[in-house]
Design goal:
This protein has 5 helices and 5 strands, in the order βββααβααβα. α3 packs across α4. With 160 residues, the chain is α+β, with helices and mostly antiparallel strands. It is globular, with a radius of gyration of 15 Å.
Length: 160
């Protein structure tokens, strides 16, 4: 299976996009631009377009084929996280309850932290049960920026 890489500039810094032939496999926050693969990927081109639309406030959902690598449990958590709509937030406890047990809270948090496709699988929308920002692999400043961006482009009131 071929791997394709493209780095794009965004309001939250450089994003390294990676795909295989079946879908987007990762988005990473990177400090500097990384060289792209020689042959372009339609998935990465479409991902860049949709991310630019999101950052400009014109897109609230994504319809890119995804192929994240993870355990069955992690993928189940990410499927629940994908259901959190633009401008809304949820807690680890909320996801745990949806999955059937409040005892999953810590495991949900760990799975959320391993999300390989941030923004599109919107792990930034997970906040603490107390309404405060919690850890984010891309850094709390990026998480705050993403949540404020969504708040600004959606009329639901305060997110956190």
């Amino acid at each position: 299976m071929n791997t394709h890489i493209k780095t794009i500039l965004s309001p939250v810094g450089n994003l390294r996009l990676e795909s295989d032939d079946s879908g987007l496999t990762s988005i990473q926050f990177v400090g500097e631009k990384i060289e792209n693969t020689l042959e372009s990927s339609q998935i990465l081109t479409e991902t860049e377009i949709q991310l630019n639309d999101y950052f400009s406030g014109n897109r609230k959902t994504f319809d890119i084929p995804l192929n994240p690598k993870g355990t069955t449990f992690q993928k189940e958590v990410w499927d629940y996280v994908k259901k959190i709509t633009f401008g809304k937030t949820a807690s680890y406890l909320d996801i745990s309850k949806q999955m059937g047990s409040i005892t999953y809270t810590r495991a949900v948090g760990m799975a959320n932290g391993k999300n390989p496709i941030p923004i599109i699988i919107p792990c930034h929308r997970i906040i603490g049960t107390n309404g405060k920002l919690t850890g984010y692999a891309g850094g709390l400043e990026r998480k705050k920026w993403l949540l404020l961006h969504e708040q600004k482009n959606e009329s639901h009131g305060r997110l956190f």
